Amino acid sequence: EDIPLELHKVRVVQKLHLVPIERRLDAIKEAGFNTFRLSTLDVYLDMLTDSGTNAMSDNQVASMLQADDAYAGSQSFIKLQKAVEDVLGKKYLLPVHQGRAAENVICRAFIKKGDIIPTNYHFTTVLAHVLENGGKIEELLHDHALVLHSDHPFKGNMDIEKLEACIQKHGVDKIPFIRMEASTNLIGGQPFSMSNLMDVRRVADKYGIMLVLDASLLGENAYLIQQREEQWKENSMADIIKMMTGLADLVYFSARKLSSSRGGGICTNRKDLYGKMEALIPLFEGFLTYGGISVREIEAMAVGLRETLDETMISQSPSFIKYLVESLDKLGIPVVTPPGVLGAHVDAMAFCPHIPQTEYPAGALAAAFYLISGIRGMERGTISSVRDENGDEILADVELLRLAVPRRVFTLSQVKYVIDRLAWLYENRDMIGGLKFVYEPPVLRFFMGGLEPT
Ligand code: F0G
């Protein structure tokens, strides 16, 4: 058996609660069958997300005690700037309180009404900000990207012909930037290749369009480039990351993911782009040397960014995910392959073929899985989608139950418990029924929406 080895030891721990199934039934009803609304007191393994839940290192925690508390001119910010320059190769840094705040600033600064943003694939928060500013997203994945059970190593690649066609169709004036998302979150944490990013850059140069990289899951994408792309297998994480960020004009990230801390950032080497966004930071985030982030977290971010270059750290989550995905696959449980990053992604439409997509199979599976295991996953399907101008559902391309594996948080026996419970539920999948909304917020409805069985 290919057992993933932890190259760290556990020194600080937190107690978990595995409450009885009777309590779990009440808990999921009280939560409106929405796992976002569960209390952690009712959750055994929290696999909702890796956002802000990755383990910090001893050096990160230690750095927080040295933070320089100052509204302006904090030395902690200088340390972060230096780390961004060393690791991401960008001189100018705008701090923001998290990833979507970066999206708010970038979209406000560059999008005008009627604009089109070509992207490999949307993320929920960036889609909301593009729409908010009167723009539209065009998704340009290869056709094979949505083949859930596949052995394509780079399902996050952008289709270069589709990109050319998109630019020809809408014209350069309507396209303020092209957005590439590292480790394409919503299709199962699937990476793009370096050669694909280089091709996108070539098209961007040909038409003089800016290239924006969402680097929230950059470390893992770089790690999978090293593992899967022949030309890069001898290169260090430092080389690969610098090459990736060097291809983009503007790089932004959620530090809740990249660097295992909190906060976020936008960075660039272009003073003109920096100048277009600078004034928005004090307006929405805070002064330019903290951007709504506590200085302690800024210190942890600086250390965490540097630790991203450590292969023994960055490989931990992908290697556990690989173990989880391959074990589920062997048992015949429908799961997204090849294994990606962030978590394992169960194909809910294949798991629950008896539930129509309008009754949210991924949401139904997430609720049922919590009930029988105490494990909290996240719906990534139509509940996470939006309605069109007429109020009709836009059915998601894929219906996934995401089981996040935050870095260095779970043990292998806990991962085995996930496999055991999911296998049991698969045997008994006929028991799972569909859901309908009883409370539907107008924006990002998946966060606080309430549902009930149909
Ligand atoms: N971009 C990507 C690729 C993300 O995965 C996220 C967050 C964001 C931007 C927004 O960052 O949460 O700091 O505002 N993803 C989290 C998740 C929420 O659970 O996948 P944020």
UniProtKB/TrEMBL annotation:
Family the entry assigns: Belongs to the beta-eliminating lyase family.
One Pfam short name: Beta_elim_lyase
Protein keywords: Lyase, Pyridoxal phosphate
Gene3D superfamilies associated with the record: Aspartate Aminotransferase, domain 1 (3.90.1150.10), Type I PLP-dependent aspartate aminotransferase-like (Major domain) (3.40.640.10)
Cofactor: pyridoxal 5'-phosphate
Organism, scientific name: Alistipes hominis
Domain Aromatic amino acid beta-eliminating lyase/threonine aldolase: residue ranges: 46-418
UniProt name for this protein: Tryptophanase
SUPFAM superfamilies: PLP-dependent transferases
